[in-house]
Amino acid sequence: MTGGASLEETLSLWAASLREAKRRIRPLFTQDRVAASAGQFVDALLGPEPRKTGWMRAEAAGDRGPWRQQALLGRGRWDADALRDIVRDHVVEHLGEDNAVLVIDETGFLKQGKASCGVGRQYTGSAGKITNCQIGVFASYVSTKGHAFIDRALYLPKAWASDPPRRKAAHVPGAVEFSTKPRLVQGMIARAIAAGVPLRLGRRRQRVWHGWRLCENVLMRSPRKFALGSTQLMGDVRESLCANAARTFP
Asked: Is residue 98 predicted with pLDDT exceeding 50?
């Protein structure tokens, strides 16, 4: 085969990269069996099943039921923020560039019940209307080499933040308080700067948030030079945003 790696070489590279990813997250877990469950969870997420339900993930992992993976996600004691930092460092290692862009956006997860943490009637672009959903805020790192998520935060509405019984039932940590979406983004930008993530330009979706000046203030306080902009059409995020960053900062 000419012009690129063979199928066998590509699969071998993927397998080696997956093993390396599992090696990196291993210190998060105190027991080998929990680490093994985490590895199987990752395998299932990358599998061919169109819907990643608990039962389907369990079947893909060879388990008799979803209880092991439910225990990992619901009762296991491991630091999700530490995992976030590992993912961020991995992304920067492979995609890092000085002209990279941090793309900020929110998305909704449609729900039917009332028990999921943060669920409520609120607007989501996923449905294009106010409906019962959870809202997540995400930061994606974009360079000419590719793009990947490096941070996330679940939006907790005031109705949830001020309801102790509901918080307790959903296992919301006591330190978590109500934060507006711009405040959540402000924390993401601050974490990226503190971690030394190479960035030149921050971007947001056009629809997002009246409090964007909060985020701009974080960048202005940093000794590194940043700028903020907006984009209406994400389209091909990698090419369009990085080309714009190159024009803005020659």
From this structure: yes
Q: Domain ends where: 40, 63, 78? A: 78
Contact 142, 241 (CB under 8 A): yes
Q: Is the pLDDT of residue 222 over 80?
A: no
> If you count DSSP H runs as helices and E runs as strands, how many of each does the chain have, helices first?
10, 6
189: which 2 tokens? 């930008």
pLDDT for residue 203: 55
Give residue 56's pLDDT: 85
pLDDT score at 220: 54
Q: How far is the C-alpha of 103 from the C-alpha of 217, rounded, in Å?
A: 17
Q: Which residues contact 142 (CB under 8 A, 6 or more apart)?
A: 100, 101, 102, 103, 237, 238, 241, 242
CA 192 to chain centre: 13
pTM for the structure as a whole: 0.77
Domain that holds residue 203: 79-250
Do 149 and 194 have their domain in common? yes
The pLDDT of residue 211: 46
Of 51, 78, 105, the domain-final residue: 78
Query: 185 Cβ partners below 8 Å, 6+ apart?
Result: 104, 137, 139, 204, 209, 214, 215
Whether residue 175 is found in the same domain as residue 132: yes
